[in-house]
Amino acid sequence: MVRVGGDAARRELRLIDKDAMREAVLNAIIHNDYINGSYPVFEIYDDRIEVLSTGGLPVGLTEDEFFKGRSHPRNRELMRIFSDMDLCEQLGSGMKKILKAYSKDIFDISEHFISVCFHYNEEAVKILDEQADGGVNGGVNGGVKTAEMQLTENATIVLHIVKQDGTLTQKQIAKQSTLSMRSVQRAIKELKDKKIMVREGSDKIGKYIILSS
To answer: Are the C-beta atoms of residues 15 and 121 closer than 8 Å to each other?
Structure first.
């Protein structure tokens, strides 16, 4: 948490929304598929926190129903225990809390995994950087960072692959990187938005051009 301003007009900035993170962690633990010995994974990076659970969506639950907060517990006993400990909210309310603070884009849902990526609040990160560098140095150092240093991990992976062969399709990039198609599409959008890469030509015979990195 970062405090901004004096006592009279102080506001607090958090790197991530704590309520949304809490619900994502609880969901990962309660709805993870433990049959094959796989456990939820919580990874902390310089720019984000990722919550990964295995098993994908429960059988019979669509992605639309998932985002509407429809409950289909994979581990009912675990859910009962968490409910007895007053750690579980009313059914469906957890997803509402997450989507109140973030868009659906933080989710990456595939057949076997559900990943939730919480990127840090950029304003809070900037303030922390300036405080760490004594204020003045933080502002200077922040201006000289290259675009590539500020890329997400997936965008960095895609950029490396495209540098080797710009004629690859999104499907081929996904196969080489082992990322899902949705993750590849997000990474490509990020690279385009940051004017690091553009697409020339059609989807079938075109290619990606690296502008800067």
So the answer is: yes
* Count of positions (residues) in the chain: 213
CA 35 to chain centre: 26
Contact between 130 and 196 (Cβ < 8 Å): no
Residue with tokens 């969506």: 57
Domain with CATH 3.30.565.60 in the chain: 17-119
| pTM of full prediction above 0.70 | no
Asked if 73 and 49 count as a contact pair (C-beta separation under 8 A), the reply is no
DSSP secondary structure code for residue 58 in this structure: P
Question: Which residue do the tokens 């697409």 mark?
Answer: 199
What stretches of the chain show up as alpha helix (H) in DSSP?
18-31, 63-67, 76-84, 93-101, 122-132, 136-143, 153-164, 170-177, 181-193
Positions in the chain whose pLDDT score sits under 70:
1-11, 89-92, 131-149, 212-213
Topology of domain 146-210, per CATH?
Arc Repressor Mutant, subunit A (1.10.10)
pLDDT digits (tens, 9 = 90+) for 151-177: 888 888 899 889 988 999 999 999 888
Q: Which CATH architecture has domain 17-119?
A: 2-Layer Sandwich (3.30)
Instruction: Evaluate whether 211 touches 196 at the Cβ level (below 8 Å).
Output: yes
- Under 8 Å between Cβ of 49 and 121: no
User: What does the buried/exposed string (b/e) look like for 6-44 if buried means 16 or more CB atoms within 10 Å of the residue's CB?
Assistant: eeeeeeebebbbeebbebbbbbbbbbbbeeeeeebeeee
